[in-house]
Design goal:
mainly alpha, 2 domains, two-stranded antiparallel sheet
Length: 136
């Protein structure tokens, strides 16, 4: 059976004066380059840049630009924040790197101490270091 696909809806990327000033202020003051990139991706279609051009300029695909815009319209600046997704690799922080390095060092260089050291390092990682893993 054939399925007839309709033309995609045209999206109005025009922002109100309030939305535009909020975005521009956010772009100027935010410390997160990721959020600035997303805010810029919302602002560019407003000033007439095509979504395909925005995607190329920001090194993302068009669907990502659409998603940013819809999240912005639904939730404002909060919608631009990172959302965790399944399947993303975990990015380790410095404390985890040090923990792994010290563990490997004790096993390879000082195997006679590894039975003593590993529980100490594990306790340090769990309680003393505030060890956390983070997602980008």
């Amino acid at each position: 059976m054939w399925q007839i696909k309709s033309m995609p809806k045209t999206i109005d990327y025009k922002l109100s004066d309030t939305e535009l000033s909020q975005l521009e202020q956010f772009i100027k003051t935010s410390k997160s380059s990721r959020l600035v990139k997303r805010a810029t991706g919302i602002r560019m279609p407003h000033i007439g840049t095509g979504v395909d051009e925005v995607g190329r300029a920001l090194s993302v695909n068009m669907q990502t630009v659409y998603s940013w815009f819809h999240r912005w319209k639904a939730e404002g600046l909060k919608g631009l924040e990172h959302r965790s997704r399944c399947g993303l690799p975990v990015i380790a922080d410095v404390a985890l790197f040090l923990f792994c390095t010290l563990t490997i060092y004790t096993i390879i260089i000082s195997p006679q101490f590894s039975n003593l050291t590993n529980p100490i390092l594990s306790t340090w990682a769990r309680e003393g270091s505030n060890l956390r893993t983070s997602r980008m």
